[in-house]
């Protein structure tokens, strides 16, 4: 029977999922490596096929998947990225970034590299390690064979953390012999003393291996290269290596010091972080390029006479360069290169590392709260929750995502909740260059989760040189973790915007209030839920809107600085007897408290349209779309505002764009149909409205707009039949009087149209069609009764 390894050679030319195997490019104890073509994203990838039996059962596979997910979050120019993990036809495999080039061991090939090259590659290696260590990931098997150098000189660390994936630490590991655990611990010549002794592994273990790699680059041979393998363990544990300067006399004393510090036996005597190592290597690299070599010749005496003068001048020049920071020289020397100006930011969905789908709400809630906290910075545009959640499971690169969202930087991170503790890891990445600007991990008791969120937001804000206001910092406070968890679950289900999700969200908000009636966040969530009930036909507006208004007011009694509650109160006020003036004031307050709250801008555009201010409404709708560029509702709303502003070509373009986002989003078809009708394209208008009805058959508003467009098309008999059906529909799906008025206006039955507009005014639902702007009501504008209605509604002062 053929072995599994030989079977894998036959993978060439076959497919694993959507990956076509092109060629075998490597093999080792951790599996066979192939170059493959990702047929979905049209790019080359490296596929590492696990040896047969590595994942013996589903439990092992689940563990492997969880660890691979952690590693996939490493996104750094000097770390090879893990894209995917899958099983196809009984083959378990990892999909990784494909990196053309040569390994560092091939580049060294027994010869020392120039010191300038050692420093350049060494800085990249240390920076890649620093990024990984800040994620809590240790390589465990760093060696020249796991480092690849591209044709343009970039170093990439391969197989990060894979030693742990293949051989997770078990309770029996301590009783196994060294030969049994070597694969788990690393590769013997590059192992640190603590690895050999079975002690705790941390970032300093990788720093020891980094020192071995630097040693090999600087000398052309490994530490203890002359020691027999049988004596190698004892040498690593007890003997110092031959000083690298003895093997390469051209080596500077400072580089020798750096290498020897990395190779200290005791972890506490080494560099304590890869970031410290990177700073020393970078500083030495800069000094070596700025200090001219000393030449010795026949004019030695003359030169020696000028050395003091030259030294003084050189010191003076260096001081001047340092003070003026010419071309960022000081920043680079100190490892503090200036951060590019960041004016816009997206917080990508935090990854839930618990492995429990039931905990997804917690990571989503933390993402939303981080967005909210950062959104309070007036100088920063922060993308809203709806848009960033589109990237929950994406394989897109950071530059691609940033380009789609039009942002300068992104925040990536993860959340791990274990018992009553929570750990958040976050990193800030400059998008265009994929430059890692900052990373940090936080661990706190769950009861302190609100202050933890604020701390993370404040650190990121400081890094991008903006400050949260004192009021924002004061709002960081502890809360009952059970209450907060109920609130997070409520928001998680509310964000689904499905009937079932809205009802589940309502239950969680209500349970939080049953536990503590003074919990302002839950009251704000309840207000939003009642508003959505009314909009989705789950409760009659005349019943739901007063409840929303009361809940929002209660939230503000408890916390007057809740932007969400002000926005909810504004929307409820607009819908409750058409108080558009006070609604506008609430929206202004919401925006002042959180200038990145997209929903406040969207709802404000509706109030401004109701008030007849098309241009200001368009500004608000555009700002909402900038903050939440992938939200279907906000994109459709922008199309509607363009329609009401009578910019029909722009409205068609915007509505088509929204339909491209999701062809099954009914509201976009409604607004596209209205615009086609106004442009005289009646067949397409009817087709779009019919599509909306088919997508949302129980929505009375959709049927009303189909009826309106058919009235514009003079299909009178069918319109009258549909009108009869609309009028019969009971609560909560009864037809809005405004919609009926539009239909009668299109039939040129002005008396009936005005009758229903009066009815809308009396019921308080006049807001739903902007009567001062809507082109469908133009036939009524010269009628004194229509002008009188505008006066009563406060929309006409003449």
Beta strand count: 15
CATH architecture of the domain at 104-157 and 168-290: Orthogonal Bundle
End-to-end Cα distance, whole Å, is: 96 Å
Which spans have pLDDT < 50 for at least 5 consecutive residues?
1-8, 165-185, 290-307, 321-338, 470-478
Mean model confidence by pLDDT: 81
For CATH, the homologous superfamily of the domain at 104-157 and 168-290 is named as Transferase(Phosphotransferase) domain 1
Structural commentary:
This protein has 798 residues and is an alpha+beta fold. A six-stranded antiparallel beta sheet has the order 1-2-3-4-6-5. Strands 10, 11, 12, 13, 14 and 15 form a six-stranded mixed beta sheet that branches. The model is unreliable at 1-8, 165-185, 290-307, 321-338 and 470-478 (pLDDT under 50). The protein has 36 helices and 15 strands. The longest helix is centred in the middle third of the chain and has 25 residues, at 300-324. Helix content is 54%, strand content 11%.
């Amino acid at each position: 029977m053929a072995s599994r390894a030989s079977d894998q050679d036959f993978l060439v030319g076959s497919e694993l999922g959507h990956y076509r195997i092109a060629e075998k490019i490597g093999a080792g104890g951790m599996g066979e490596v192939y170059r493959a073509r990702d047929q979905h994203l049209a790019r080359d990838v490296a596929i590492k096929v696990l040896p047969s039996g590595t994942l013996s059962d589903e439990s092992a596979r689940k563990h492997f998947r969880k660890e691979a997910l952690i590693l996939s979050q490493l996104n750094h120019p000097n770390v090879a990225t893990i894209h995917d993990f899958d099983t196809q036809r009984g083959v378990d495999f990892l999909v990784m970034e494909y990196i053309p080039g040569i390994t560092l061991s091939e580049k060294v090939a027994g010869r020392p590299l120039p010191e300038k090259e050692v420093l350049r590659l060494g800085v990249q290696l240390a920076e890649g390690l620093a990024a990984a260590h800040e994620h809590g990931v240790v390589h465990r098997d760093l060696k020249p064979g796991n480092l690849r150098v591209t044709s343009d000189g970039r170093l990439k660390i391969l197989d990060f953390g894979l030693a742990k994936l293949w051989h997770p630490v078990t309770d029996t590991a301590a009783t196994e012999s060294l030969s049994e655990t070597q694969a788990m611990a690393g590769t013997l010549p590059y192992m640190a003393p603590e690895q050999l002794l079975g002690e705790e592994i941390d970032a300093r273990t990788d720093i020891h291996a980094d020192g071995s790699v630097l040693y090999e680059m600087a000398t052309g041979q490994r530490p203890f290269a002359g020691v027999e393998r049988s004596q190698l363990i004892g040498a690593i544990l007890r003997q110092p290596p031959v000083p690298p300067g003895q093997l390469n006399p051209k080596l500077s004393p400072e580089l020798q010091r750096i290498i020897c510090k990395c190779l200290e036996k005791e972890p506490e005597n080494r560099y304590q972080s890869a970031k410290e190592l990177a700073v020393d290597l970078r500083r030495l690299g800069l000094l070596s390029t700025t200090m001219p070599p000393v030449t010795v010749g026949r004019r030695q005496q003359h030169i020696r006479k000028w050395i003091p003068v030259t030294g003084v001048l050189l010191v003076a020049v260096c001081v001047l360069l340092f003070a003026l920071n010419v071309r960022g020289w000081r920043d680079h020397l100190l490892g503090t290169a200036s951060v590019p100006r960041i004016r816009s930011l997206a917080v990508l969905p935090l990854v839930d590392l618990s492995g429990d789908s039931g905990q997804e709400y917690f990571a989503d809630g933390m993402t939303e709260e981080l967005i909210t906290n950062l959104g309070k910075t007036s100088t920063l545009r922060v993308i809203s929750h709806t848009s960033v959640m589109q990237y929950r499971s994406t394989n897109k690169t950071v530059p691609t995502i940033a380009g789609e969202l039009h942002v300068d930087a992104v925040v990536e991170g993860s959340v791990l909740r274990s018992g009553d503790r929570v750990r958040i890891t976050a990193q800030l990445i400059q998008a265009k260059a994929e430059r890692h600007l900052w990373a940090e991990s936080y661990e706190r008791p769950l009861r302190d989760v609100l202050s933890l969120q604020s701390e993370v937001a404040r650190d990121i804000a400081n890094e991008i040189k903006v400050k949260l206001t004192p009021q924002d910092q004061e709002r960081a406070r502890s809360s009952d973790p059970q209450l907060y968890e109920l609130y997070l679950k409520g928001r998680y289900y509310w964000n689904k915007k499905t009937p079932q999700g809205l009802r589940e969200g309502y239950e969680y908000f209500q349970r939080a209030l049953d536990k503590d009636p003074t919990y302002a966040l839950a009251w704000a969530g309840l207000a939003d839920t009642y508003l959505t009930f009314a909009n989705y036909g789950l409760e009659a507006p005349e019943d739901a809107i007063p409840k929303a208004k009361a809940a929002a007011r209660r939230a503000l009694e408890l916390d007057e600085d809740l932007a969400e509650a002000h926005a909810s109160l504004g929307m409820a006020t607009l819908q409750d007897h058409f108080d558009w003036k006070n609604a506008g004031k609430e929206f202004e307050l919401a925006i002042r408290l959180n200038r990145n709250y997209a929903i406040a801008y969207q709802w404000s555009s509706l109030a401004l349209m109701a008030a007849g201010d098309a241009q200001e409404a368009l500004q608000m709708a555009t700002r909402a779309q900038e903050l939440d560029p992938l939200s279907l509702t906000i994109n459709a709303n922008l199309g509607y505002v363009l329609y009401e502003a009578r910019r029909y070509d722009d409205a068609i373009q915007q509505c088509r764009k929204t339909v491209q986002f999701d062809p099954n989003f009914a509201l976009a078809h409604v607004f596209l149909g209205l615009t086609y009708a106004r442009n005289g394209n009646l067949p397409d208008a009817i087709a779009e409205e019919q599509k909306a009805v088919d997508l949302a058959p129980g929505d009375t508003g959709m049927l009303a707009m189909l009826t309106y467009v058919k009235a514009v098309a003079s299909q009178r008999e069918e319109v009258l039949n549909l009108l009869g059906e609309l009028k019969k529909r009971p609560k909560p799906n009864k037809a809005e009087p405004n919609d009926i008025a539009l239909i009668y206006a299109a039939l040129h039955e002005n008396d009936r149209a005005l009758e229903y507009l009066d009815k809308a005014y009396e019921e308080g639902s006049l807001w739903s069609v902007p009567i001062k702007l809507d082109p469908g009501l133009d036939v009524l504008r010269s009628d004194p009764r229509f002008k009188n209605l505008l006066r009563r509604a406060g929309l006409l002062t003449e």
